[in-house]
Amino acid sequence: MPCLYGSFEDGVQMIHARSSQAKGRIEREWGTEQGRLETEFAIRGITTPEQANAFFPEFLKNLNARFGIKPAKTESRFMPKPKSVNLDRLFTFKETRVVDNSGCFSLDGVLFQCGIKGIRPKTSVVVLISKKLGVKVLFDDSLYTPVPILTKNRADIRNSSVKVVIDEFVFRHCLRNERAS
Hints:
- The protein is of the alpha+beta class.
- The protein has two domains: about 15-80, no CATH class; about 85-180, no CATH class.
- It contains five helices and nine strands.
- The strands form three sheets. It has a four-stranded antiparallel β-sheet.
- Strand 1 (about 1-5) and strand 2 form a beta hairpin.
């Protein structure tokens, strides 16, 4: 299923909620807590972050006692995860790329060397991008670590820190909207 930055498997699609109307219940909860906290701080004479942190567990306990609802049934409704499911692979952004004659593929203006021995030109590979995995190539059910070698402006980055290049690439694909939040 298509996603903003790639695709997820099993019909999972990421949709960023950028407004309080889209966020629903959690925004109402934050509104209640933030609206109440200022009053509770004033009543108790709390003026420092340390005092606020010490008070917060008591505040949450009272808030939950007042607004919390006990579930009618307490057993878990979650299905167990099948042993065959690899969550690190499942929850990544995926892009399909075609390998060129030199065993490279391009993604977002960065040229990567596949790192797969003997891969044939014009072979399709799946590029996995996540904060946990970084950038990996999935081919024949094995993961390979690609090496970034050139950028959009044709700058050679082979001698740069591969980790820094990969981290920045992951940020641009997976987390760019999260830093602004």
